[in-house]
Amino acid sequence: GDTPAGGADFSAADTGIVEWFGRFSLSIAGSGTGTTIHRLARAQSGITASSWARAGYTFYRGTTNAYQLDFAKTIEIEFAPVVVDASTAAGKIWLGWGISTNGVDPTDKFIGFRIDNLAVKGIYHNGTTLTTVDLVTTLTAGALYRLRVKFTAATNVEWWISGTSKGTSTTNLPTGTYNYGAILIMVANGADAVNVDAHMNRCWYSHGY
To answer: Does position 3 have pLDDT exceeding 80, yes or no?
Structure first.
């Protein structure tokens, strides 16, 4: 079902579709921009070098934070569809759930994807170490993709691209809980004066099963 009107309650099992409108937060630097329309989120770096943009979605229950990630449970996210612009070949894109940083890799607990020069990597952070897995897939600019990541407690992290499993990892898995995080899409162009552009039309999540 859709995200509950009062926000997701992760003290129990919960699943839903992210409605970006009304709970969207945008952070930018340089020429970065971002937009959301209901279930669509888009981030663009613009053409000024060293620019980035991050669109984040945070869950709330009333006025209390209710988005604690519990890594003793199963956590799953699917971004679909995802479209990237050709200029992404000069930059990076992150999609995932966890800590949000400013145009660089996560520095605390996180599960998701990083797209480098159109090549897809699976990434996760356990609070100490960032793990990167090459998913041996290069995206085609302008095409539609479904990107899915599933964390199974004390077992593995697995990534799918458009329904096909592309990689797993079993080492340095996150444990415990994490109180501050968001489902996000972020782009950065590094030192290149090009516009890195990505958007997703819908995002499903599941936590606690």
So the answer is: no
